[in-house]
């Protein structure tokens, strides 16, 4: 009994060519996928500086992480004129757009309110209220001490 080697048929050859074609498409797709880059977040270690997350010093990373943590402790809500005295406040002083019923808002310890996205972006640059310049972290931390 000898080894029986079979000559490839035209069907075998076309399957092989199709397989190689799929492999080439897969490799090309992987190459494109590897070339697609996920955007690196941009942060503001100080109000006047803008840097990629990969360029921050360890100290700046810690400061930004603290800001993110403190920001998440600030109360959020939705704009509802007539509730909580918010009927007097008509516009966000950051974007200068009128509040609309149902807009997501954030309350600062000084009781100023802003659009959630506007104030969150602001607080990542400066941790002071844009209206009264009250340091938000000092007011927030003192509220924890009194409770």
Tell me how many strands there are.
5
The number of helices is 4
List the uncertain runs: none
CATH topology: Herpes Virus-1
What's the CATH H-level homologous superfamily? Zinc/RING finger domain, C3HC4 (zinc finger)
The CATH top-level class label: Alpha Beta
Structural class of the helices, strands and pairings? mainly alpha
- Tell me the strand order in the biggest sheet: 3-4-5
SSE order: HEEHEEEHH
Report the radius of gyration as a whole number of Å: 29 Å
Give an overview of the whole structure.
The chain has 147 residues and is mostly helical. The protein has one domain: Herpes Virus-1 (2-Layer Sandwich), CATH 3.30.40.10. The chain contains four helices and five strands; from the N terminus they run αββαβββαα. Strand 4 and strand 5 form a beta hairpin. It holds the Pfam family zf-RING_2. One of its GO terms (cellular component) is nucleus. It comes from Ictidomys tridecemlineatus. GO terms for molecular function: ubiquitin protein ligase activity; zinc ion binding.
Name a few traits of the molecule.
Herpes Virus-1; 3-stranded antiparallel beta sheet; two-stranded antiparallel ribbon; globular
List the helices and strands and how they pair.
Blueprint: H1 10-35, E1 42-43, E2 51-52, H2 58-71, E3 76-78, E4 104-107, E5 113-115, H3 116-125, H4 136-146
Antiparallel strand pairs: 1-2, 3-4, 4-5
